Recover the amino acids of this structure.
């Protein structure tokens, strides 16, 4: 087991190097730092000196991968590639365009992101699986058909609609909770309620349908027929047998998401003014802060790879037959 | 030299769209000769829901195609000078809707309104009042008491017109096919669910009649901040949505198919390399990779203004680049599926027989493997469509979507979002954008489900 984990972690290294090279190519080779400087400074203030100054302030004035002027290892380390890309592996993300340390900013913003993402995730999973089991219980009836139609209709609605409509209805018409904002401590609940509920509702359509398909596939198996044949009530068949056996396909889709919860949701956070990582990313995109976007890409893929590993490990918990070599 | 009144313009996205249509026509000709594929499509055609969805989709595609025939109008000829053409690029849809396009008001007005949304100080009055619209309800003159009656009259006229056209169409089909109406309503000729098509056409014709009749005198969905008709904007958005939904898959498919088959069939280091490639790409969260790529593309476009002759070309280039980027991030899933399927096919008897006969590797991949993967390609094409249409709106909101000058559902929602805070609320452009998008995506989802059920061998049980 431990050997398996270590091997998987080692396997992640080339992938992370690939991600790193890709972002490096995207941010520094496709566009030279000069291009970025010109874009950031705007048309009016572009002078060679201004570009030089902009680059020097951000450390973009070094050679890309090979510094012929520096001595010894400096030829490799005193370059953009080393200072901007390689050091990401050590958790050093450098500074954002407004001068703040990105790593510290990420640490501060993780809390609010999790405060929204975790309840949304847990509640959404619970609600979707319950609905899916309900539909499967009433399978091939009008209720099942209506449920599927509702699911398809709900997944055809843009996520933006849920957010905008929910904000309008709950906050503007009913005046139940504040329209946006965030505060620490217990006070956060009144800000978190609406985004969590909207997040759950927005995801119900597609996930319920997905779980329903999984359960329906499982329900045709022989063990289910055996369970029914020995006289178990349908309720017990569903909860004790079908749910348990459907866990593997469910885990495949679900566990991989857990680590990425840190990243928050771009849309929800920016609509509700939550100072999390999602809104951080959106602000960076709008301000064209390349350093922040680059860091978030890197962190995102680290978390995703951790998620894949967690998925594989969760299989052993769900299904004792799964063994790793 | 005789100059035409118009000069046709072929934007890159138009060209690709026509290529796509050519590919679809070619593939359907090919498919019609394959028994298995014909049987699968016949299953789709028998499905009432699928045919209803296909009808709605066809209407959207028709609008999108009309909007893809671009031209530049000729300017007033100057004596002695060569013919010159306007900088503005218009489409056939613009020409059809020129009434809607040109009747711009000053700013917001509610649907079917006769007055502007905000009070203004009028020249001949000391009080601030709601100014009359220049075009909305202009035919009423000063006799505003008739407003509601006029709307009701036009609405019923439009509905009646739609109904009459529909009845004529049904009668025509009945005459041609020699079927009685009842048979048409149930299951039509050749097992196609014709009834579903006709039933879907009825509301479409009714809505069309309403829109034409009311749109002649009013702004059916109101006007936006700069006074543009929202109905016109919604119709123009359809092309953008369709393009993103289809071109993305088109640019992605060759890569995904080629790499997926290569990885699965050749194996060895090729397999390792391709797997590494798509694992790396798919390990970056989609939105972030798209955002990063779009930001970089923006820098490229902004630093090379000389590449594009007109602003329409620049917006078009950006739209294409967005499709390309979306395609690059989404080919990984299809490639993985195709690799898995190829691994299975490789061990089957007919492939091994071909190998034993000494058929070359690439011939096997092309003749024996590729045709057996087409159902996966088709399913992923239709399944991805609706997701991409929805993604466009989100990306445009995040600021990494289409060019702000491109009319799309995303840009409509993005500009309309701010207006909800106004008092009274400006809700119509948001509702129009979401409504059109919902109809398009719902139809696409229903159609995709039917296609998947018909083509997926696992679900045929």
């Amino acid at each position: 087991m431990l050997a398996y984990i270590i091997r998987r972690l080692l396997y992640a290294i080339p992938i992370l190097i690939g991600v790193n090279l890709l972002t490096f190519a995207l941010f520094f080779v496709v566009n030279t730092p000069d291009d970025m400087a010109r874009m950031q400074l705007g048309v009016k203030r572009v002078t060679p000196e201004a570009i030089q100054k902009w680059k020097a302030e951000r450390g973009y004035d070094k050679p890309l991968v090979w510094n012929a002027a520096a001595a010894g290892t400096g030829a490799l380390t005193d370059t953009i590639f080393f200072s901007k890309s390689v050091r990401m592996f050590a958790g050093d993300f450098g500074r954002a365009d407004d001068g703040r340390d990105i790593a510290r900013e990420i640490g501060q913003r993780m809390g609010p992101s999790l405060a929204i993402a975790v309840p949304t995730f847990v509640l959404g999973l619970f609600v979707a699986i319950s609905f899916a089991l309900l539909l499967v219980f009433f399978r091939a009836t009008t209720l099942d058909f209506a449920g599927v139609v509702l699911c398809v209709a709900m997944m055809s609605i843009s996520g933006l609609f849920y957010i905008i409509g929910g904000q309008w209805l709950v906050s503007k018409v009913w005046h139940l909770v504040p329209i946006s904002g965030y505060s620490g401590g217990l006070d956060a609940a009144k800000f978190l309620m609406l985004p969590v509920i909207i997040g759950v509702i927005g995801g119900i359509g597609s996930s319920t349908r997905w779980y329903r398909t999984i359960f329906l596939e499982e329900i045709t198996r022989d063990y289910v027929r055996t369970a029914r044949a020995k006289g178990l009530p349908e309720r017990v068949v569903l909860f004790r047998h079908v749910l348990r056996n459907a866990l593997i396909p469910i885990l495949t889709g679900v566990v991989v998401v857990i680590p990425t919860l840190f990243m928050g949701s771009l849309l929800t956070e920016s609509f509700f003014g939550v100072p999390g990582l999602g809104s951080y990313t959106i602000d960076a995109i709008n301000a064209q802060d390349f350093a922040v976007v680059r860091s978030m890409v890197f962190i995102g893929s680290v978390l995703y790879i951790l998620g894949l590993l967690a998925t594989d490990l969760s299989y052993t918990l769900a299904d004792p037959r799964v063994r790793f070599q | 030299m005789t100059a035409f009144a118009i000069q046709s313009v072929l934007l890159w996205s138009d060209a690709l769209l026509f290529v796509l249509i050519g590919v679809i026509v070619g593939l359907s000709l090919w498919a019609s000769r394959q028994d298995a594929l014909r049987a699968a499509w016949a299953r789709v055609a028998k499905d009432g829901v699928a045919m209803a969805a296909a009808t709605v989709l066809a209407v959207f595609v028709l609008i999108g195609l009309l909007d893809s025939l671009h031209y530049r109008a000729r300017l007033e000829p100057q004596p002695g000078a060569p013919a010159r053409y306007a900088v503005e690029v218009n489409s056939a849809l613009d020409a059809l809707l020129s009434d809607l396009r040109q009747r711009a008001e000053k700013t917001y007005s509610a649907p079917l309104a006769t007055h502007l949304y905000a009070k203004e100080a009028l020249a001949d009055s000391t009080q601030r009042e709601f100014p009359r619209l220049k075009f909305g309800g202009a035919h009423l003159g000063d006799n505003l008491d008739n407003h509601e009656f006029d709307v009701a009259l036009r609405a019923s006229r439009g509905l009646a017109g739609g109904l009459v056209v529909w009845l004529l169409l049904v009668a025509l089909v009945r005459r041609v096919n020699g079927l009685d109406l009842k048979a048409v309503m149930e299951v039509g000729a050749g097992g196609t669910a014709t009834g579903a098509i006709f039933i879907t056409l009825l509301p479409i014709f009714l809505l069309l009649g309403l829109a034409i009749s009311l749109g002649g005198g009013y702004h059916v969905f109101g006007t936006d901040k700069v006074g543009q008709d929202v109905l016109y904007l919604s119709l123009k958005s359809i092309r953008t949505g369709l393009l993103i939904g289809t071109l993305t898959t088109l640019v992605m498919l060759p890569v995904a198919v080629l790499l997926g088959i290569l990885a699965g069939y050749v194996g060895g280091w090729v397999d390792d390399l391709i797997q590494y490639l798509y694992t790396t790409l798919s390990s970056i969260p989609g939105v972030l990779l798209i955002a990063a790529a779009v930001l970089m593309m923006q820098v490229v476009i902004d630093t090379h203004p000389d590449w594009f002759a007109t602003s329409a070309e620049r917006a078009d280039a950006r739209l294409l680049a967005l499709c390309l980027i979306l395609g690059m991030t989404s080919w990984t899933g299809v490639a993985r599926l195709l690799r898995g399927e190829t691994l299975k096919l490789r061990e089957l008897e007919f492939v091994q027989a071909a190998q034993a006969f000494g058929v070359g590797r690439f011939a096997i991949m092309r003749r024996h493997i590729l045709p057996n993967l087409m159902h996966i390609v088709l399913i992923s094409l239709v399944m991805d469509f609706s997701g991409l249409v929805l993604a466009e709106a989100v990306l445009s909101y995040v600021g990494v979507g289409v060019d702000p000058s491109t009319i799309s559902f995303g840009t409509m929602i993005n500009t309309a979002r701010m207006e909800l805070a106004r008092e009274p609320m400006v809700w119509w452009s948001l509702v129009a954008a979401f409504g059109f998008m919902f109809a398009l995506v719902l139809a696409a989802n229903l159609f995709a489900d039917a296609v998947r059920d018909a083509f997926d061998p696992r679900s045929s049980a």
User: Anything to note?
Assistant: The longest helix of chain B spans residues 361-398. The longest strand of chain B covers residues 6-9. Chain B touches chain A through 42 residues (CB under 8 Å). The radius of gyration of chain B is 26 Å.
